[in-house]
């Protein structure tokens, strides 16, 4: 089960990386970034898993709780990732107004 | 999308690179699960009830042990809102007043109290059950997002003034810092909880865990206000007819 979780995380990351390398549309690049972020967060959360662990809520329903630290770090990272993506989208809107395109190959030079 | 031969030649190395990185991640990162917690995590799990009074260990880590991190996180959101507002400042955009059909509007009016109840449950019970300020704040923001979509952004701006949203966000941030300073006055350090003399209560009850519920409320307000401001600043632009993206933006 935990291998499936790791595998999903890595597959998500690789899909994001492929999209990042192949696509030239800035919107799709941002979606790829958010996909990669999802993969990394899933990986972090999976690392805190302990076989037979219960959710870290008191009183514990079993003997061993899963690691609560990766979960709280993931919460932090989700918020920061959402902020990143919002700012990136805002910049893309500005770039579109300035250059008239969102294709990274056609955005060339400084236009003042 | 055309698969010309030169493009294909460029794609093969990139594909191989991605698959190679994936392979090495799989070989390198997949560790066997450890049967026990590390020392820090074990301390958090065993001492949360006595040191913070909260039932949710994740919330105790976020808003007590590492509350300073959460303050930094809230600052990141604030910076993003400032950045987006700055990027789109100084222009006047037309806001739409049409919205969707009558049925959707009535249905939305029925749903709003329940969404509000759900959001406030998640914020207020953050120290007892999974949830907390960040998650509840996002659900709060969905109300204003739905308002924008269903009733049009002019109605949303008229009902919930953007200035009021920014005011709520700033006051929530100040409240967070103020609670931290109270901990400093109690002689236990910035954002100290029970050691600064806040009543801990019985773990598992609604009024327990010292400052954690109040920090949850502050963060919930802050995140809700920030995200709805972000959405509003962006939808203003997309709704203006001359400024919106043309159809070619959404094809490859």
Total of helices of chain A: 3
Arithmetic mean pLDDT of chain B = 80
Rg of chain A, Cα atoms, Å: 19 Å
Sheet/helix structural class of chain B: mainly alpha
How many strands, what sense, and barrel or not for the largest sheet of chain B? Answer: none
What is the chains' assembly state?
Answer: heterodimer
- Helical amount of chain B: 55-70%
Average pLDDT value of chain A?
85
SSE pattern of chain A, N- to C-terminal = HHH
Shape of chain B: globular
Beta-strand percent range of chain A: under 5%
- Fold-level CATH name of chain A: Helix Hairpins
Number of domains of chain B: 1
Task: Spell out the blueprint of helices and strands.
The complex is a heterodimer of chains A (112) and B (252).
Chain A: H1 2-22, H2 26-47, H3 68-99
Chain B: H1 5-29, H2 39-51, H3 57-65, H4 67-87, H5 102-124, H6 133-151, H7 153-159, H8 162-185, H9 212-239
Helix pairs in contact in B: 3-4, 4-8, 4-9, 5-6, 6-7, 6-9, 8-9
Provide a quick synopsis of the model.
The complex is a heterodimer of chains A (112) and B (252). Chain A has 112 residues and is mainly α.
């Amino acid at each position: 089960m935990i291998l499936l979780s790791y595998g999903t995380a890595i597959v998500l990351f690789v899909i994001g990386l492929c999209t990042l390398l192949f696509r030239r549309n800035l919107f799709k690049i941002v979606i790829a970034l958010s996909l990669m972020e999802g993969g990394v967060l899933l990986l972090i959360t999976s690392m805190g898993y302990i076989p037979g662990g219960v959710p870290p809520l008191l009183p514990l329903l079993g003997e061993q709780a899963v690691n609560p630290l990766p979960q709280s770090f993931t919460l932090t990272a989700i918020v920061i990732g959402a902020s990143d993506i919002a700012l990136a989208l805002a910049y893309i809107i500005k770039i579109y107004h300035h250059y008239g395109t969102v294709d990274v190959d056609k955005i060339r030079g400084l236009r003042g | 999308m055309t698969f010309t031969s030169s493009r294909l030649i460029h794609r093969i190395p990139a594909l191989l690179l991605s698959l190679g990185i994936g392979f090495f991640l799989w070989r390198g990162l997949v560790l066997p699960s450890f049967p026990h917690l590390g020392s820090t995590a074990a301390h958090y799990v065993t001492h949360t009830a006595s040191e913070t009074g909260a039932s949710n260990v994740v919330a105790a880590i976020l808003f007590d042990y590492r509350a300073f991190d959460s303050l930094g996180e809230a600052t990141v959101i604030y910076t993003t809102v400032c950045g987006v507002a700055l990027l789109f400042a100084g222009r006047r955009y037309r806001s739409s007043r049409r919205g969707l059909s009558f049925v959707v509007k009535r249905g939305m009016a029925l749903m709003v109290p329940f969404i509000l109840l759900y959001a406030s449950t998640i914020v207020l019970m953050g120290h007892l059950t999974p949830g907390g300020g960040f998650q509840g704040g996002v659900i709060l923001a969905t109300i204003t997002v739905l308002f924008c979509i269903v009733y049009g952004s002019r109605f949303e701006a008229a009902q919930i003034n953007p200035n009021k949203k920014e005011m709520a966000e700033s006051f929530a941030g100040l409240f967070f810092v103020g609670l931290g300073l109270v901990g400093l006055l109690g002689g236990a350090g910035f954002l100290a909880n029970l050691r600064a003399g806040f009543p801990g209560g019985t773990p598992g009850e609604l009024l327990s865990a010292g400052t954690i519920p109040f920090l949850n409320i502050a963060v919930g307000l802050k995140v809700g206000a920030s995200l709805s401001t972000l959405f509003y600043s962006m939808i203003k632009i997309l709704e203006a007819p001359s400024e919106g993206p043309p159809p070619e933006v959404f094809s490859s």
